[in-house]
Specification:
heterodimer; A: 504 residues; 72% helix; B: 2 domains
Chain lengths: 504, 171
């Protein structure tokens, strides 16, 4: 079979010493950063990007992918031990993980999380290996009109799935596209929104915004939340009994598959996947009522699902070159910096990157299992690093990372400005993921729209005439308007039996 | 409820002004000499109008209940510390003050970065912020600050061959 041969080639790449070391560094750093309450995979990736400067793209992506799934792995630790999820994707884990920890079974919950994550991760890598080449065959026929429609769908899906206000999500997305347009228009050479500043001609680097909005703003939010840290529960034994393994086998398998496909969809990622897995198992389980009180299936299902979703989210990123979430948007940004443009052609032009990353994920998942099972009691000590030092270290890493980009203090000023913007967004409940995705997609969207219109001689019907782009645009419209319509219907149902006082 | 609603309105007014000025600038983008189906100004104009429309929508949007509860969560620790009789929160330790001081420190860091040099300014930033956030083991703090700032300097300049301003230090 072709894919087996390709996978063997991938292992050849992934098993090179350099790549082995970097996948280890990636998963370790990801686990540690993901474990810190408040810092999720996006912040972890943003903080690690400066390290990939000048790296060979395969190694760079192997490192970054390791950081990504490592952060999701690590997030479960703080969910279980502190009830303070470091990552939105592991919130569902805390529902049953923390009650287990309070019962003195933290070790069991951590072991469950580690096994479930491992299986979820591995199943999703198999899925990625099988689905990605198929999708890339379809994607080869995509023209600029289809790409434009796909990017619109990616954006609207992320906006509609962010739990905050739809309008605020859209504002964040539009603002992201606006920021992406700053600088010279590559097609005409016209400077836009540069205010005559030479340093803005090249545009604002996405790392500045990623570090500002996700890392620096996070520091401000942590400062605002105050200094109280939750008490850490004792870990206890890590062992699982045979009956427990039997009990979780079904939930883990189902949630892994569900999680993978959730990850493939634009907009939905680890967070949606984990909640879907959790609620599905709660409904299926005979003892569904004990969910939330320390049911082991309530830990296994979301953990399997979120790791599987993480693998699934690589499908659109690698085959279409269009990220479906804020996190994969940062990965795409990092790849572009390294000079690789993911897309349907990447399978042929850069098989080392494509198959190397997939193979490295198998290895990375094994590393994670080893890291998380015997070593977890030691790694979780990081949670007791003084908060004061942690916050100032994050600030310093942001500054050094940004300065290393172009060695300009102007960039340092910009990262502070975006830190403030990100903080205000958090304070007033504007979601940040649409912004970062729009930032990456904005320029690409404009380019494909222009190319489509150039091919069609300026006729706008090009987006509707092509069946794929038409369907994608309809889906994009639905993803925005369907929740609004459903919300309106629900509100009407609620208000009709009552009097009209609500309207006054 | 009413107060939260006003917050949205205030933000929407700021956004409205922002999008109008964005639009004004969009209309000033020069057109390309060769006519094209889509010139540089189309996308900004669409975005400007979209943002204007969204800011108007935001003006009329009501805050959801969940949003309020989340805000309360943000404020909870602060109230807790206020109620704590053993610990009176001084002006300098208030979260709001901490954020402002952090910002000012960062601005000072950027301003002094090139003249003072990477090592000294980073060392100072790290030590001061850690101290200010309430870490009391000064020797550990000093060791970490020195190791991190010198460590990064050495990795970047010797390892990656990157120039970092040496400033006052004869490096």
């Amino acid at each position: 079979m072709d894919s087996i041969q390709n996978l063997l080639y991938g292992f050849e790449v992934a098993l090179q010493w350099e790549n082995l070391i970097f996948v280890f560094i990636g998963v370790l750093a990801g686990t540690i950063i993901g474990m810190l309450p408040g810092l999720g995979p996006i912040s972890a990736l943003a903080l690690m990007i400066p390290i990939t400067y000048g790296m060979n793209p395969a190694t760079g992506l192997i490192l970054m992918a390791g950081v990504y799934y490592g952060a999701i792995f690590g997030g479960s630790t703080s969910s279980i031990l502190l009830n303070a999820p470091g990552v939105a994707g592991t919130v569902a884990t805390s529902f049953d993980g923390y009650p287990l920890a309070k019962k003195g079974k933290a070790g069991k919950a951590l072991a469950l999380a580690a096994y479930a994550s491992f299986i979820g991760g591995t199943i999703s890598v198999i899925g990625l290996m099988l689905v990605a080449p198929l999708l890339s065959k379809v994607a080869v026929s995509f023209g600029p009109a289809e790409y434009f429609a796909l990017m619109v769908l990616g954006l609207t899906a992320v906006v509609s799935l962010s739990d905050k206000s739809l309008v605020k999500g859209l504002i964040a997305a539009v603002f992201g596209v606006m920021v992406s347009l700053v600088g010279i228009d590559l097609q005409t050479g016209t400077p836009r929104y540069t205010f005559g500043n030479l340093k803005l001609l090249e545009g604002i680097d996405f790392l500045i915004i990623a570090l500002g909005i996700f890392a620096l703003a996070e520091v401000f939010v942590m400062l605002l939340r105050g200094s109280k840290m939750a008490k850490q529960n004792k870990i206890g034994s890590l062992k699982l009994s045979k009956s427990e393994i039997k009990e979780i086998a079904g939930p883990v398998g189902r949630s892994s598959v569900l999680g993978f496909f959730t990850g493939v969809l634009p907009g939905a990622g680890a967070t949606v996947g984990s909640f879907l897995g959790y609620s599905m198992e709660k409904r299926i389980a005979k003892d569904g009522k004990t969910f939330g009180k320390g049911n082991i299936k309530g830990v296994a299902a979301p953990e399997a699902a979120n790791n599987a979703a993480c693998g699934g989210s690589f499908v659109p990123l690698l085959t279409l070159g269009v990220p479906g979430s804020g996190t994969t948007a940062i990965l795409l940004g990092a790849l572009l910096v390294m000079g690789v443009t993911p897309g349907p052609m990447m399978l042929e032009t850069r098989p080392d990157v494509f198959w190397g990353v997939i193979a490295s994920m198998y290895i990375g998942n094994i590393f994670l299992l080893v890291l998380n099972l015997p070593l977890i009691p030691y790694i979780s000590k990081i949670l007791s690093v003084p908060r004061a030092m942690l916050l100032s270290l994050i600030i310093v890493f942001c500054m050094i990372g940004v300065y290393g980009l172009k060695f300009s203090t102007f960039d340092l000023g910009m990262v502070i400005a975006f830190g403030v913007i990100g903080f205000l967004m958090r304070l007033y409940h504007f979601p940040a993921a649409p912004l970062i995705l729009a930032l990456i997609l904005g320029a690409m969207m404009e380019e494909s729209m222009r190319r489509a219109l150039q091919i069609s001689n300026g006729s706008w019907t090009v987006f509707i005439d092509k069946p794929i782009s038409f369907t994608l645009l309809i889906l994009a419209g639905l993803s925005i308007f369907l929740p609004v319509i459903i919300g309106l219907i629900k509100r009407m149902k609620k208000t009709t039996p009552k009097d009209n006082s609500a309207n006054l | 409820m009413l107060i939260k609603w006003r917050t949205n309105q205030k933000i929407s007014i700021i956004l409205f002004i922002f999008s109008i000025s964005y639009l004004i600038m969009a209309f000033q983008i020069p057109s390309f000499s060769i006519p094209r189906p889509v010139d540089s100004d189309l996308f900004p104009k669409v975005l400007g109008f979209l943002m204007t429309f969204l800011s108007i929508l935001l003006f009329f949007e009501k805050e959801k209940g969940e949003v309020e509860s989340e805000l309360d969560v943000d404020k909870q620790p602060e109230q807790e510390t206020k109620n704590d009789p053993n610990e009176e929160v001084s002006f300098w330790k208030k979260p709001q003050t901490q954020i402002v001081v952090t910002l000012l420190t960062l601005i000072a860091y950027v301003a002094l970065f090139e003249s003072v040099g990477f090592v000294l300014s980073t060392l100072g930033l790290l030590f001061f912020l850690t101290l200010y956030y309430g870490y009391r083991r000064h020797i550990t703090n000093a060791i970490v600050s020195v190791v991190v700032s010198f460590g990064f300097y050495l990795i970047m300049t010797k390892g990656l061959g990157v120039y970092l301003p040496a400033g006052w230090l004869p490096l």
